[in-house]
Amino acid sequence: MDIKNELITWSDKFSCGIKLIDDQHKELVALVNEMFNHVTGNDLQEHNYFNRVINDAVSYVKVHFATEEKLMLATKFDGYAEHKKEHDSFVLAVVENIKDYEAGKRLTLSSFTRFLKDWVLPHIALMDKKYFEYFKKVATRKADGKLSITSADVNNAAL
């Protein structure tokens, strides 16, 4: 595939300022774009591609969610329970979509990537922004201006 199209374009407005989280969000965006670039209209090609990448994609999403949740718990973020519920419902929705796709139901790679986009963008822009603001209050700003959550930040987080 020579021409790369972006279904999602990364923007600094999605950035929380914590490198680990920003890098993971960028990777999620790249993952959705990679899937989008494998939409060919050829059901067999798309299905073969989907089968090759979906387990790694789901694993990556779970690692990312675990990272966010660990930071939220460590810093005593009040919105943890709501955020965790949102993550869990997304994973269930993805699993249902995968089952439908594998069962040959009329779910296409194109519709699956759009489903991902329609969840990822609002989640980062709305749900994640809540903890971004909280992390900015409790995180240490390093000399380069980037935020870092240190053990001292965790110990000093709002009780």
Tell me the number of structural domains: 1
N- to C-terminal distance: 52 Å
Strand order of the largest sheet: 1-2
Q: What's the Cα radius of gyration?
A: 17 Å
> CATH fold name, please?
Four Helix Bundle (Hemerythrin (Met), subunit A)
Describe the protein in words.
This protein is mainly α and 159 residues long. The chain has a single domain, classed as Hemerythrin-like (Four Helix Bundle (Hemerythrin (Met), subunit A)). It contains five helices and two strands. It has helices at residues 19-36, 43-74, 80-102, 109-138, 151-156, and strands spanning 140-141, 147-148. A two-stranded antiparallel ribbon has the order 1-2.
What layout of secondary structure does this protein have?
Layout: H1 19-36, H2 43-74, H3 80-102, H4 109-138, E1 140-141, E2 147-148, H5 151-156
Antiparallel strand pairs: 1-2
Helix pairs in contact: 1-2, 1-4, 2-3, 3-4
Brief descriptors of the model:
Four Helix Bundle (Hemerythrin (Met), subunit A); two-stranded antiparallel ribbon; 159 residues; 3% strand; mainly alpha; 69% helix
Briefly characterize the structure.
This protein has 159 residues and is mainly α. It has a single domain (14-156), classed as Hemerythrin-like (Four Helix Bundle (Hemerythrin (Met), subunit A)). It contains five helices and two strands, in the order H-H-H-H-E-E-H.
